Amino acid sequence: MALTAPSRTSPVRARRDADGMAVASFVLGLIGLLLFNAVFGPCAIVLGTLAIARETRRRGRALLGLTLGIADVVLLIVLLTLNHSVFWQFGG
User: Fold this and answer.
1) Which one of 26, 32, 80, 81 is CB 3.0 to 4.6 Å from 65, fit for a cystine?
2) What Cα–Cα distance (Å) separates residue 49 from each residue in 6, 59, 71?
3) In whole angstroms, what is the distance from residue 14 CA to residue 54 CA?
4) Which UniProt key words apply to this protein (predicted)?
5) Is the pTM of this model over 0.90?
């Protein structure tokens, strides 16, 4: 008879954690469009990917967070290319 180590997290808690990661990914991706896209964008991508891998019930929110995170990184690249700055502003 093989002994296995007990699981540290229950399936319900793991699902709740994945749902929280999906929401956090969405929020960070949304904020990253306006502030600190160099930090929040990659965080949104990682959290969205982890939430999808852990089979969250909020898959749409995780995908949206992943998409917004990618948009944050693309915005950062565009700003660095055009303005030679990581900041953007309206007007001249």
Assistant:
1) 26
2) 26, 10, 15
3) 8
4) Membrane, Transmembrane, Transmembrane helix
5) no
> Rounded to an integer, what distance in angstroms lies between the CA atom of residue 63 and that of residue 90?
29
Q: What share of the chain is helix, strand, coil (3-state, %, to 5)?
A: 70, 0, 30
DSSP letters spanning 27-59: HHHHHHTTS-HHHHHHHHHHHHHHHHHTT-S-H
Angstrom distances, CA of residue 22 to CA of 6, 40, 85: 27, 14, 30
Per-residue pLDDT, 40: 93
pLDDT digits (tens, 9 = 90+) for 32-91: 988 888 899 999 999 999 999 998 898 999 999 999 999 999 988 888 888 776 665 655
Residue 6 has pLDDT above 60, yes or no: no
**Contact by Cβ (8 Å): 28, 72:** no
What per-residue confidence (pLDDT) applies to 62? 93
